[in-house]
Amino acid sequence: MTASRWLAEYAWLPEHAEPTPDVLIETADGRISAVTPLTAGRAGVTAGVEVYADAVRLPGLTLPGLANAHSHAFHRALRGRTQGGRGDFWSWRDQMYAVATRLDPDSYLALARAAYAEMALAGITCVGEFHYLHHGPDGAPYADPNAMGEALVEAAAQAGVRITVLDTCYLTAGVDGRPLTGPQRRFGDGDAVRWGERAAAFTPAGGHARVGAAVHSVRAVPAEQLSTVARWARERDVPLHVHLSEQPAENDACRALHGCTPTRLLAEHGVLGPATTAVHATHLTSGDLGLLGEHRSGVCLCPTTERDLADGIGPARRMADAGMPLSLGSDSHAVVDLFEEARAVELDERLRTRRRGHFAAVELMTAATADGHAALGWTDAGRIAVGARADLVTVRLDSARTAGVPPVGVFFAAGAADVTHVLVDGRPVVRDGRHLTVDVPAELSRAVAEVTP
Q1: Which CB contacts under 8 angstroms, 24+ apart, belong to 403-407?
Q2: φ, ψ for residue 105, nearest 5 deg
Q3: 371, exposed or middle or buried, with CB in 10 Å at 0-12, 13-18, 19+?
Q4: Do 9 and 55 touch, CB atoms closer than 8 A?
Q5: Who is most buried in 82, 143, 364, 401, counting CB within 10 A?
Q6: Residue 395 near residue 414 (C-beta atoms within 8 A)
Q7: What is the largest CA-CA distance in the chain?
């Protein structure tokens, strides 16, 4: 049995509104085996911290591992390349397709490994990869039809993080059922039955990886095939994610063809439920909010991408009040920083309502940790508690950004660069702000150069 002891200056424990000072965390075989807040007055206590010669000190605030619930790894190659001139989501999408045409399993492995290692540096211990780049450039399957998904699984292993591959059904180019053309041909399996057959054959090895399901959107899966994807996920008891109401144009097209909003269409075909996470959900009606809450579906917000693409601001507080667990994602990776994503949930609400004080710090922390892991099917992660996975993320409190900030204020002040130590399943992945196995800047530079025009 492998065991370790970690002495956190502050740790954010479950059901505590604020971090707790001086906490001894013990781990064994990838799990947390003991959590002991130390108190003044005990024998051997000096300045409130008992001296444990074999414990690794973690100066700063130690959090549960962060969960990035929505990622498109290959979008990392677009960072800083789509900012020239005017445009919207649809013009950005054309540039994204240009990168998609250039990837193969080897180049995807290199890019995803570097992207996931960047996430580890930011304190992310688990990623949900919304994976639809399945086949070769002409749409023909590789010899291994899941070669691209296997590359993602291997990339996560080499970066030291866990992954849920959300295998995505993507069949049509619009709500009207137009066929996939050009770069989109790589995404399609023909129909939902064939998608399910390929996805069922995707059984990655290693305890760090799981497979879930995704409906790309109501644009990409015909209404009559939505239930096939939903049934596939339910039968396997795996997470089901879906892009929902990211753009008003999607809503308008759905109403024109089906006479209802995308949310109601998903509800009518059995897609919504407690295991379902709607991604973005930016342009919801009051009826949509009621449906999502009624079905206890979650919502993954991706604020840095939503503002980068000029998508809009979703009603986050109304979602939470309706009973939807909120999680966070970096999506297109214009920014990889879940502290920024978390505080943007509050700050965007302030912009939308012109009022302050919508989310307490502990709510933002929970979205970035426990609820994010739960959305990806890892319900035993995201808490510093006995029996939970030994994922620990330490944030310094003495940087130019965090000096003088109380520990409870970290989600409103810190950034990814303030992460110093990261454990994933009890294994050190980041120490003193450096990834232990990946030269992240060098690998990102090489990988991006290989796949960008």
Answers
A1: 407/10, 407/12, 407/18, 407/19, 407/61
A2: -55, -35
A3: buried
A4: no
A5: 364
A6: yes
A7: 73
> Residue 142 has what DSSP assignment?
P
Using only C-alpha atoms, the chain has a radius of gyration, in whole angstroms, of: 22
pLDDT by residue for the chain (453 residues), tens digit each?
566 999 999 999 998 999 999 999 999 999 999 999 997 534 444 444 455 778 999 999 999 999 999 999 999 999 977 776 666 666 677 788 888 899 999 999 999 999 999 999 999 999 999 999 999 999 999 999 999 999 999 999 999 999 999 999 999 999 999 999 999 999 999 999 999 999 999 999 889 999 999 999 999 999 999 999 999 999 999 999 999 999 899 999 999 999 999 999 999 999 999 999 999 999 999 999 999 999 999 999 999 999 988 889 999 999 999 999 999 999 999 999 999 999 999 999 999 999 999 999 999 999 999 999 999 999 999 999 999 999 999 999 999 999 999 999 999 999 999 999 999 999 999 999 999 999 999 999 999 999 987
- Which residue, 422, 387, 347, 413, is CA-closest to 126? 422
- 28 — phi, psi (to 5°)? -150, 125
**Tally: H helices and E strands in the chain:** 14, 18
- DSSP lists the bridge partners of residue 37 as 23
The sign of the CA dihedral 52, 56, 57, 63 is: negative
Identify the sign of the CA torsion 67, 329, 220, 85. Answer: negative
What pLDDT does residue 81 have? 74
Helix (H) or strand (E) holding 150: helix 147-159
> How far, in Å, CA of 75 to CA of 129, rounded?
11
DSSP state of 172: B
Is-contact 113 438, C-beta < 8 A?
yes
Residue with tokens 């989600």: 411
Residue from 89, 186, 116, 125 nearest 428 by CA: 125
Q: What is the DSSP string of 263-331?
A: HHHHHHTT--STTEEEEE--S--HHHHHHHHHTT-EEEE-HHHHHHTT-----HHHHHHTTPPEEE--B
- How confident is the model at residue 2, as a pLDDT? 63
Residue with tokens 């330490």: 394
From CA 436, how far away is CA 419, in angstroms rounded?
14
8, 50 Cβ separation under 8 angstroms: no
Nearest alpha-carbon partner for 284 in 325, 328, 240, 319: 319
Residues with catalytic function: 280, 331
